[in-house]
């Protein structure tokens, strides 16, 4: 019989949750403060006077820079969705191949893929930049979508998950005459739903929040993502905190929606694969 | 699952088709950063330029923190922007990639021009910044602190036609120590840049011989840094912004209305316009020699090497015309890099006139001296360290800090 957690556990969990939630809530509440409250030497957590003026301000279409907010949201959504679909497709196929097929050099390939996890983006930024220029996709959204489509972490996660599917199940399908594509689509994919949900959520989150790579790969302001747009509020001497906070708050909403839709699969996938954010 | 796959496929196809539409390409690109609305002002001007000439220049903004990183990757990839908003630091760090503007505009009509190693201008000065001293008039008047006032023609202090000296400034501001409603008499931006005018105000240049030797260990420079150290170690200036390295701390302090002065620059004036107490800008004190000096900075418009150099230079020629140049600075508004510019500062007319007066009072040789100083790679971290070293109660003596800074400058010159 599983014992219910005691009150102490709940208190500790609540405190830990609040520690992590604090910066998020602080951002949201600060976006609802007046300019004078934002400037206060001793800032308060909750606004003394609630205002939505900054949200109206960033949507003001009379202004060149602010007026593109809808475009930036669309750009970010476009990049995140397409990149996520590609990531799910490529990572699932690659993970399946490495988990269930034995071929010459499979272990070496897996080790090479795992080794690339150790390389931070900053190290491989210049080579990737040259590759996207070679393929003439620099300064297009494809430069944001294609390079991160196959992630070593995603491939490894999928491989580990698929290792748990009995080989006999696949063998039975083959004996019954199922093609490899049919096995993949009707046996592997349905059984890998928790891992697919985890990859989808992480991929969407990474692409939605991505800043450094779009900064390098995009120079056309019409192609900017939300994170690039938010960074433009920072000047040499002054930062427009009000608009930065309001835009940041808006940028959180799609992530919350995605998480709320997929939270069951996300938790299951995280537990079963050991992957963390 | 089949439905999910079908929907995913349809969504992917839809997005791919949406991406296939070819976008019309601009004739040139301009890289930009903003502290406020200047990007929008320039965008309006670019629209007018397109109407007048048919040349489409597309402006794209990058946050200041990543500005040089972004420019570096663009230059490495042979994709430098045709035009770019530059600071002294940007021009210095990428100077071989900028096009000479020799003969493109009349240099005599502008101030704060940045030159490359061949003594050719590589930027058209657009807006300039000046260091200055904000004072809380309500607090100063309430505690009978005297300060210079302008009678329409001259600055008057203690009944004489002059500004105050640092000694007089300290005497007056000490009246605020421990006074009711006062946290500290003053607050300083922590950056070393805000300290540097104090050296010029002692009546010396920083370079003894440009890029060869400095006057940083002279008695005058030591006296200037000793003054700053006394501020921090005494009760005159709140050391929290520098102790915690919080550049936003000093303006936040001043905005509470409980600090008598804030040593900073003109870039905070528009933020302070909404403060609910009376404030103004007072002339910065001088050393005993009576020399006034501020530190000029600013932004320029530069053209970069590439395929569109001629078109880019045409634009800079257009931008240098008085009406066009003034349109930009009036649109923000900013102090102008064009000598004789007519800028309407609106409700900030008074404070901005003081900044302009500080610029006018600064000897040209000091302005040129500082521009040469900005060409030392890493100069800002060097002078930031210098003021932090003396502000720290367990740090260095002023002479030690200046010697360390001088050595760092020489090392930088040798390495670069």
Topology, please?
The complex is a heterodimer of chains A (277) and B (416).
Chain A: H1 7-30, H2 35-38, H3 53-59, H4 69-100, H5 106-117, H6 121-134, H7 142-145, H8 152-162, H9 167-175, H10 180-191, H11 193-209, H12 212-217, H13 226-231, H14 241-273
Helix pairs in contact in A: 3-14, 4-8, 4-11, 5-8, 11-14
Chain B: H1 2-20, E1 28-32, H2 38-53, E2 57-61, H3 67-76, E3 83-86, H4 88-93, E4 124-136, H5 137-142, E5 149-150, E6 155-157, E7 160-161, H6 166-173, E8 184-188, H7 197-200, E9 207-209, E10 213-214, H8 219-233, E11 237-238, H9 240-243, H10 249-255, E12 259-265, H11 269-272, E13 279-282, E14 296-303, H12 309-320, H13 322-331, E15 335-336, H14 349-361, H15 364-373, H16 379-391, H17 398-415
Parallel strand pairs in B: 1-2, 1-3, 8-11, 8-12
Antiparallel strand pairs in B: 3-14, 4-12, 4-13, 4-14, 4-15, 5-6, 6-7, 9-10
In short:
The complex is a heterodimer of chains A (277) and B (416). With 277 residues, chain A is mainly α.
Describe the structure.
The complex is a heterodimer of chains A (277) and B (416). Chain A folds into two domains: 1-60, no CATH class; 67-273, MetI-like (MetI-like fold, Orthogonal Bundle). In chain A, 69% of the residues lie in helices and 0% in strands. Chain A contains 14 helices and no strands. Chain A has helices at 7-30, 35-38, 53-59, 69-100, 106-117, 121-134, 142-145, 152-162, 167-175, 180-191, 193-209, 212-217, 226-231, 241-273. In chain A, helix 11 packs antiparallel against helix 14 (241-273). The longest helix of chain A has 33 residues, at 241-273. Residues 61-66 of chain A have low confidence and may be disordered. The relative contact order of chain B is 0.16. Chain B is built from 17 helices and 15 strands. In chain B, helix 2 runs antiparallel to helix 13 (322-331) and helix 16 (379-391) runs antiparallel to helix 17. Chain B folds into two domains: 27-128 and 297-361, D-Maltodextrin-Binding Protein, domain 2 (3-Layer(aba) Sandwich), CATH 3.40.190.10; 129-295 and 370-415, D-Maltodextrin-Binding Protein, domain 2, CATH 3.40.190. With 416 residues, chain B is of the alpha/beta class. Classes of the chains: A mainly alpha (277), B alpha/beta (416). The interface between A and B is large, with 43 and 50 residues.
């Amino acid at each position: 019989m599983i014992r219910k957690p005691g009150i102490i556990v709940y208190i500790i969990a609540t405190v830990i949750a609040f520690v992590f939630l604090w910066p998020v809530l602080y951002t949201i509440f600060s976006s609802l403060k007046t300019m004078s409250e934002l400037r206060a030497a001793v800032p308060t957590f909750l606004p003394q006077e609630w205002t939505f003026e900054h949200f109206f301000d960033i949507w003001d279409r009379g202004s060149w820079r602010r007026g593109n907010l809808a475009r930036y949201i669309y750009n970010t959504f476009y990049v995140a969705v397409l990149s996520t679909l590609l990531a799910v497709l490529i990572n699932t196929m690659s993970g399946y191949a490495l988990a269930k097929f034995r071929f010459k050099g499979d272990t070496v390939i897996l080790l090479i893929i795992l080794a690339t996890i150790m390389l931070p983006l900053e190290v491989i930024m210049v080579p990737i930049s040259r590759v996207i220029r070679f393929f003439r996709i620099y300064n297009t959204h494809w430069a944001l979508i294609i390079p991160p489509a196959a992630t070593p972490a995603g491939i490894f996660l999928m491989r580990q998950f698929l290792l748990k599917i009995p080989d006999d199940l696949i063998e039975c399908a083959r004996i019954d005459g199922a093609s490899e594509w049919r096995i993949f689509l009707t046996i592997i994919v349905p059984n890998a739903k928790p891992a697919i949900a985890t990859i989808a959520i992480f991929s969407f989150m990474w692409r939605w929040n991505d800043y450094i790579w779009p900064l390098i790969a995009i120079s056309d302001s019409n192609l900017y993502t939300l994170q690039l747009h938010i960074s433009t509020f920072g000047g040499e001497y002054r930062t427009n905190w009000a608009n930065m906070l309001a835009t940041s708050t808006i940028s959180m909403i799609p992530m919350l929606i995605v998480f709320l839709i997929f939270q069951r699969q996300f938790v299951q996938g995280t537990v079963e694969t050991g992957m963390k954010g | 699952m089949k439905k999910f796959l079908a929907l995913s496929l349809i969504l992917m196809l839809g997005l791919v088709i949406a991406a296939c539409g070819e976008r019309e390409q601009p004739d040139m690109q301009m890289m930009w950063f903003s502290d406020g609305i200047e990007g929008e002002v320039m965008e309006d001007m670019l629209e007018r330029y397109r109407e007048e000439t048919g040349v489409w220049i597309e402006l794209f903004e990058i946050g200041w923190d990543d500005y040089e990183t972004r420019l570096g990757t663009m230059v490495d990839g042979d994709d430098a922007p045709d035009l770019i908003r530059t600071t002294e630091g940007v021009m210095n760090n990428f100077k071989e990639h900028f096009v000479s503007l020799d003969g493109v505009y009349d240099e005599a009509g502008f101030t704060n021009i940045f030159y490359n190693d061949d003594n050719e201008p590589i930027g058209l000065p657009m807006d300039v910044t000046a260091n200055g001293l904000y004072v809380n008039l309500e607090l100063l008047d309430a505690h009978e602190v005297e300060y210079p006032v302008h009678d329409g023609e001259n600055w008057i202090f203690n009944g004489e036609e002059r500004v105050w000296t640092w000694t007089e400034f300290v005497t007056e501001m000490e009246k605020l120590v421990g006074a009711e409603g006062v946290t500290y008499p003053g607050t300083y931006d922590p950056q070393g840049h805000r300290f540097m005018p104090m050296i010029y105000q002692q009546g010396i240049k920083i370079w003894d011989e440009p890029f060869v030797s400095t006057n940083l260990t002279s008695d005058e420079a030591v006296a200037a840094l000793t003054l700053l150290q006394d501020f921090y170690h005494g009760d005159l200036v709140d050391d929290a912004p520098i102790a915690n390295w919080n550049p936003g701390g000093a303006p936040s302090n001043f905005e509470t209305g409980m600090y008598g002065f804030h040593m900073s620059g003109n870039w905070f004036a528009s933020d302070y316009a909404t403060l609910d107490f009376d404030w103004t800008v007072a002339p910065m004190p001088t050393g005993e020699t009576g020399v006034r000096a501020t530190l000029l900075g600013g932004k320029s418009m530069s053209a970069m090497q590439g395929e569109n150099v001629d078109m880019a230079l045409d634009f800079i020629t257009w931008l240098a015309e008085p009406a066009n140049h003034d349109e930009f600075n009036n649109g923000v508004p900013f102090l102008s890099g064009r000598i004789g510019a007519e800028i309407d500062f609106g409700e900030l007319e008074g404070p901005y006139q003081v900044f302009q007066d500080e610029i006018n009072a600064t000897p040209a040789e000091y302005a040129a001296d500082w521009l040469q100083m900005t060409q030392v790679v890493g100069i800002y971290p060097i002078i930031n360290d210098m003021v932090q070293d003396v502000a720290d109660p367990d740090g260095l003596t002023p002479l030690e800090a200046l010697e360390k800074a001088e050595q760092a400058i020489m090392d930088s010159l040798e390495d670069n």
